[in-house]
Amino acid sequence: MDRSIHTSDVSEQSGVADGNNTELTQGVCLRLVSRSQWGALAPVSQERLKGPAQKAIIHHTALWPCRSHQDCLAQLRYTQKLHMQDRDFHDIGYNFLVGVDGTVYEGRGWGIVGAHAKGNNYDSLGIAFMGNFNDETPSLAALSSTKQLLQRGVNLGYLQPAFTLLGHRDVAKTECPGNTLYEALWLLALH
User: Fold this and answer.
1) Does the CA dihedral 103-188-61-142 come out positive or negative?
2) Up-side HSE of residue 52: CA atoms within 13 Å toward CB?
3) What pLDDT does 27 receive?
4) In terms of Cα–Cα distance, which of 5, 2, 22, 3 is closest to 162?
5) What are the tens digits of pLDDT across the range 2-58?
């Protein structure tokens, strides 16, 4: 079932008293860890998007939850190695990854074609929540940071203001991003 959210169409969602979800970002500062700060390997090559992304596609890594900075660093390095060595990607597949505490880690970064959703990489931004969201619920901190990241992408011109928000399962035959995260996607919509 396609449950894609067009950010220009969102006006009211159940579960939020006043019909908006701005409380997700109030008082939260976005913590962004650069590639060099987490020790990323250099990409084999990079290709730039031709313009602002039309879609934001949400994933989960389906790995262990990273509850500490060291756990997140280990998962980032593991994921990059898996993607580059086992899957023959040119870099980690996602543009950004988000830890349980809401820290955002730069993957490929802004404006770079990802390798996260076959057939959809040339017009999208790929964001992966670190953990397995078939088994766990996404934290408010991770949801808040992701919403801020999406807004930053719009503000910087890397993401269309009326972008479509999708779970990976909306564009591929997969369980990704897990049931609990998929059910929470509407909280990420911008007004």
Assistant:
1) positive
2) 16
3) 54
4) 5
5) 444 444 333 222 222 233 334 444 555 899 999 999 999 999 999 999 999 999 999
Burial of 177 (0-12, 13-18, 19+ CB in 10 A): buried
Kindly state the helix (H) or strand (E) to which residue 53 belongs, with its residue range.
Answer: strand 53-60
String of DSSP letters for 139-152: PHHHHHHHHHHHHH
Q: What is the pTM of this model?
A: 0.86
* CA torsion through residues 125, 111, 29, 13, sign: negative
| Residue 105 parent element (H or E) | strand 104-106
Flag residues of the chain having pLDDT under 70: 1-28, 191
Residues 6+ apart with CB under 8 A from 183: none
Strands (E), 4-113: 5-6, 32-33, 53-60, 96-98, 104-106
Other CB atoms within a 10 A radius of the CB of residue 150 amount to: 23
Residues 41 and 37: their CA atoms lie apart, in Å, by 11
Structure tokens at 183: 């059910």
Tokens at 176, concatenated: 């990704």
